[in-house]
Design brief:
alpha/beta; TIM Barrel; 8-stranded parallel barrel; 17 strands; 16% strand; binds beta-D-fucopyranose
């Protein structure tokens, strides 16, 4: 039946995702204090156009309208993150009730519309106080390179679980710890903007620890029906050729992009090759006895965020541009590998981020993680694309995004057919928002946001996705229009 639609399993969760700093705004309201992203975005030269999340999509005030958008699109699930400095302003001590009330009301509104909430505890907005003021942090700062931040995260996880645990079943601890560690402390293109390779590796370990301690705190506070996972952004990393040197470059990047998290989280170990490759950067003495039992917590699901694959080779003559999708800094986010590996542009059309479109990377990852974490269900917790969308006559026509989504949903379907237990898909993003170092210049939304008026307009991709979600079926071909 070559023309039959691709049918997804019954109960497949069709959702959309956002993150607190990218949409909420209200940066100084109701007791919220600055996060590292407030500080970073207010530092000249760090974010394109000097954009900040001060107002963003004003979701803190427009959340009812935004839930209505999800409901009008017929989506079954919504992944959002809780702003740590909104609920525990200094990153320690008592919670702020108004902050928690906001998320309680949001969740109630979602549930009233039959939308399943998925809560992400940490989507990069560390309370600034934890970055600046840790005992022993000194002028270099505290933050994730310091062990105490992991302990603080566990306390915060317990607070949020206490407030939302009676109504939220799906929980993820961290979003993309790779970005927090290696873009935040290695290349410095993300907050807090530090460029210290050893600090980046320390941060990675303390994020692993935070995940483990946080998952434990969630387990202790949540009812048995709660499902606890983590959202990683594994790199679908491919060698340029099959030469031994290029295969070794692939191995190195797989270690630094993927196994640095999946080792501790899934297997309770850092692989020997990772430790050897980074030995000139750090001796890993910050890993204490027992840590790797903490980092390996039983997981109810794994979240996979995917945008684009990576292609690597042994280093070509220096000065070659680094096509790893994380440019914008002379500092490398790859400690110990920067002079040894070159990144090449993967084939495929480019999105507005200059990220190549290649859905096979998503299928490969879903199958690979099925093998690596047998019996652990998967969710695609982010996938989507930025394009230069422009309203015309009150409508926004974005056929490129429809094609992107069609290709990637076909890949999810193919992975399911080949045995991956994928339970849901969250489109990044529900609406255009603050795209980190790119500010508002990149639009990932299914819904267009006019930042002058805060008017939301569903793009044609939103209507297309709504149809797929309503029917649970993907047409074989992309319908024009
Ligand atoms: C991911 C982030 C998300 C969004 C997309 C485009 O790395 O988790 O917040 O910015 O990229």
């Amino acid at each position: 039946m070559p023309d039959a639609n691709l049918r997804f399993p019954p109960g497949f969760l069709w959702g959309a995702a956002t993150a607190a700093y990218q949409i909420e705004g209200a940066a100084r309201e109701d007791g919220r204090t600055p996060s590292i992203w407030d500080t970073f975005s207010h530092t000249p030269g760090k974010v394109l156009g000097g954009d900040t999340g001060d107002v963003a999509c004003d979701h803190y005030h427009r959340w009812r309208e935004d839930v209505r958008l999800l409901a009008d699109l017929g989506l079954k699930a919504y992944r959002f993150s809780v702003s740590w400095p909104r609920v525990q302003p200094t990153g320690r001590g008592p919670a702020v009730r108004r902050g928690l009330d906001f998320y309680r009301a949001l969740v109630d509104e979602l549930l009233a519309h039959g939308i399943t909430p998925m809560v992400t505890l940490y989507h990069w907005d560390l309370p600034q106080e934890l970055e600046s003021a840790l005992p022993g942090g000194g002028p270099a700062g505290g933050g994730w390179p310091e062990r105490d931040t992991a302990e603080r995260f566990a306390e915060y996880a317990g607070i949020v679980a206490g407030a939302l645990g009676d109504r939220v079943e799906l929980w993820t601890t961290l979003n993309e710890p790779w970005c927090s560690a290696f873009l935040g402390y290695g290349s410095g293109v993300h907050a807090p903007g530090r460029t210290d390779p050893a600090a980046a590796l320390r941060a990675a370990h303390h994020l692993n620890l935070a995940h483990g301690l946080g998952a434990r705190a969630l387990r202790a506070a949540l009812p048995a029906r709660a499902r606890i996972g983590v959202s990683l952004n594994p790199s679908a990393v491919r060698p340029l050729t099959s030469s031994p040197a290029d295969l070794d470059a692939r191995r190195r990047i797989d270690a630094l992009a993927n196994r640095v998290f999946t080792g501790p989280m899934l297997r309770g170990a850092y692989d020997d090759d990772l430790l050897a490759d980074t030995a000139r950067v750090t001796d890993w003495a910050f890993v204490r006895d027992g840590d790797l039992d903490v980092t390996r917590q039983p997981l109810d699901f794994l979240g996979i965020n995917y945008y684009s694959p990576a292609v690597v080779s042994a280093a070509s003559p220096s000065g070659a541009p680094r096509h790893d999708g994380h440019g914008g800094s002379d500092h490398s986010p790859w400690p110990g590998a920067d002079s040894l590996v070159s990144f090449h542009r993967a084939p495929g059309e480019l999105t507005a981020m200059d990220w190549p479109v290649d859905p096979t990377g998503l299928k490969d990852l879903l199958l690979e993680y099925t093998a690596q974490a047998p019996g652990v269900p998967l969710y695609v917790t982010e996938n989507g694309a930025a394009y230069d969308d422009k309203p015309e006559g009150g409508a926004v026509h974005d056929p490129d995004r429809v094609r992107y989504l069609h290709g990637h949903l076909s890949a999810v379907h193919a992975a399911i057919r080949e045995g991956a237990d994928v339970r849901g898909y969250f489109l990044w993003s529900l609406m255009d928002n603050f795209e980190w170092a790119y500010g508002y210049s990149k639009r990932f939304g299914a819904v267009y946001v006019d930042y002058e008026t805060q008017r939301r307009t569903p793009k044609s991709s939103a209507r297309w996705y709504a149809k797929v979600a309503a029917s649970g079926e993907l047409p074989q071909a992309v319908a024009e229009g």
